[in-house]
Design goal:
Mean pLDDT: 96
Order of helices and strands: HHHEHEHEEHEHHHEE
Oligomer: single chain
Largest sheet: 7 strands, mixed
Number of domains: 1
Strand order of the largest sheet: 3-2-1-4-5-7-6
CATH architecture: 3-Layer(aba) Sandwich
CATH topology: Rossmann fold
Distance between the termini: 40 Å
Low-confidence stretches: none
Strand content: 15-25%
Radius of gyration: 18 Å
Helix content: 40-55%
Number of strands: 7
């Protein structure tokens, strides 16, 4: 029986001081609700990732999820990928990894699998990968460390291997950027978050989540050596990019 999804009320009550956002136990237990309510079209993005993974993940190779959180993407991929594909999940939050292990066991994910605790700011070891995913992860990596991380991924990808990147992004121009952010907060209100919750979470993320512009992310991938880079999803200040080695 699947574990009950707890409602995200992390920032429901007013705080005297809002500290930096952390993927601790309070977030891990509500993360599935948090991400589904906070990320526009999250279910559709997951469906698109599965669709692309079926074309890029090859037998006897590895699929990496960097910032694997609670393992939702692996569960979705397990249902459609060859059983010879190995899963490697990496996250710097032990609480999220514990949640991930429990969910994978509940859902019967019985293929070759490894979960690692690592700070991606220090780089990553990738080997024999046909697919690497950075789903709402790169935005949490310090900007000066992002180029190294993407280079590590590129080196570990097999020829024709694919990187799927999903990010919150800045608008290319200030007026539209402000409007896109307003539209995003309207979405969060429609999904039941109060103005206090929106405000306190924004403050908590201010020095933790540092978005790039879409074109800056694209340029980073091209400079690293990816031969094909394209946008597969865009909603105001969120985007999905696919890059092929």
């Amino acid at each position: 029986m699947a574990a009950k999804i707890e409602k995200d009320e992390v920032y429901r009550d007013e705080r005297a001081g809002v500290g930096d956002f952390k993927f601790d136990q309070s977030v891990a237990i509500v993360f599935d609700d948090m991400v589904s309510r906070s990320v526009p079209f999250y279910g559709e993005i997951q469906r698109m990732i599965v669709e692309m993974a079926r074309d890029f993940a090859t037998p006897d190779s590895a699929v990496y999820d960097l910032g694997c959180s609670t393992g939702t993407t692996f569960i979705n991929l397990h249902r459609v990928l060859d059983p010879g594909v190995r899963f490697v999940g990496i996250d710097n939050s032990e609480e999220m990894l514990d949640r991930c292990r429990s969910k994978l066991k509940e859902q019967g994910v019985d293929r070759p699998l490894e979960l690692r605790s690592r700070d991606l700011n220090e780089g990553v070891d990738v080997e024999n990968a046909s697919l690497v995913m950075l789903i709402l992860t790169l935005q949490f990596i310090r900007p000066l460390r992002r180029q190294r991380l993407v280079a590590d991924i590129f080196r570990g990808l097999n020829p024709q291997g694919c990187l799927i990147l999903v990010e919150k992004v800045l608008g290319e121009e200030s007026l539209l950027n402000r409007l896109f952010i307003d539209y995003y907060y309207d979405l969060k209100r429609r999904r039941g978050y109060s103005d206090l919750e929106i405000s306190q979470k924004r403050e908590a993320l201010e020095n933790v989540l540092i978005p790039y512009k879409l074109l800056e992310n694209r340029e980073l991938l091209l400079e690293t050596g990816f031969r094909s880079v394209d946008v597969f999803f865009k909603w105001y200040n969120f985007c999905g990019i696919v890059a092929v080695k």
